[in-house]
Amino acid sequence: MIDLTAAERDLIRCEVDGPIAVITNNRPGKHNAMSDEMDRRLWEVLAELHDLPDLRAIVWRGEGKSFSSGRDTSQLGLRVEDISDLEFIERGHRPTQMFLTMPCPIICALKGWVIGGAFERALLCDIRIASIGTRMMLPEVVHGVIPDSGGVARLFQMAGHGLASDLALTGRVMGAEEALGHGVISRLVADDAELDELALDMAKKIATAPAFTVKMARRTLSSLGSFEVQRSIAEEAIAQSMVFASGDYAEMKAARTEDRLPAYRKR
């Protein structure tokens, strides 16, 4: 793993207080857009928390106005490694699996923008709550690619084929009130201060419950859905690598560069 500088490590803060950890996306000036450095730090934090035997609950939040606006688009297309698209995607999927294997629940406190891969990662967590004004979206198809981190499978489980198809195929914005109605979030609060307070209160309640009971409850919930999510992640890796190699994807990029309408050939 590449060593991170102190500034890069501060992009994802982690504070552990007894049985509760709080992870904070800390790039508020960019609406917490996830850079490569933020991703590496996030995986480092999750790995560290994964090995804490006395940890009972995790809160994941964002500093500033948004939880995360998704991928830092300024870093798109900068990969220079001599590896296949499939290898690159699967390498990112390996740490993503930690959301499914974490030994304690993760509560996501969503606010502002929650976009793309950040939304998918939140969907893989145990509980999502939000403040009024939160906006969620999966815009990948607009950029010629597909969501590929398992979030669509979890969304399908929560809200059904209709909503999953709508968000994944149109890239539209879903507001917090609609998300509550579909069960994507379980609670909606008035403002960000109340959001942080509620997330911490929920973590404390989980942390004071019998540890083995919580473990068995999550084990049962995992058996109902996580295997299908993992299968979907494997399928998405293959599908996304095929998209990257497709003529239509190349045509979309060329058309945008040349400021013309694309002529897709469905392959």
Indicate the CATH topology: 2-enoyl-CoA Hydratase, Chain A, domain 1
Helix/strand/pairing category: alpha/beta
Please give the largest β-sheet.
6 strands, mixed
Helix content: 40-55%
Number of DSSP strand runs: 9
**How far is the first residue's CA from the last residue's CA?**
37 Å
CATH homologous superfamily assignment: 2-enoyl-CoA Hydratase, Chain A, domain 1
How many structural domains? 1
Name the strands of the widest sheet in spatial order. Answer: 1-2-3-4-6-9
Overall geometry: globular
Strand content: 5-15%
Q: Return the CATH class.
A: Alpha Beta
- Helix-strand pattern: HEEHEHHEEHEEHHEHEHHH
User: What's the overall average pLDDT, rounded?
Assistant: 94
Architecture overview:
The protein is of the alpha/beta class and 267 residues long. It has one domain (6-249): Alpha-Beta Complex (2-enoyl-CoA Hydratase, Chain A, domain 1). The chain has helices at residues 6-9, 36-50, 85-96, 98-101, 116-124, 151-159, 161-170, 176-182, 192-208, 211-244, 247-258; strands spanning 12-17, 20-25, 57-62, 106-110, 113-115, 127-131, 135-137, 173-175, 187-189.
Overview in brief:
The chain contains 11 helices and 9 strands. It starts with 5 loop residues before the first helix and ends in a 9-residue tail after the last helix.
How do the helices and strands line up, and which of them pair or pack?
Blueprint: H1 6-9, E1 12-17, E2 20-25, H2 36-50, E3 57-62, H3 85-96, H4 98-101, E4 106-110, E5 113-115, H5 116-124, E6 127-131, E7 135-137, H6 151-159, H7 161-170, E8 173-175, H8 176-182, E9 187-189, H9 192-208, H10 211-244, H11 247-258
Helix pairs in contact: 3-10, 5-6, 6-7, 6-10
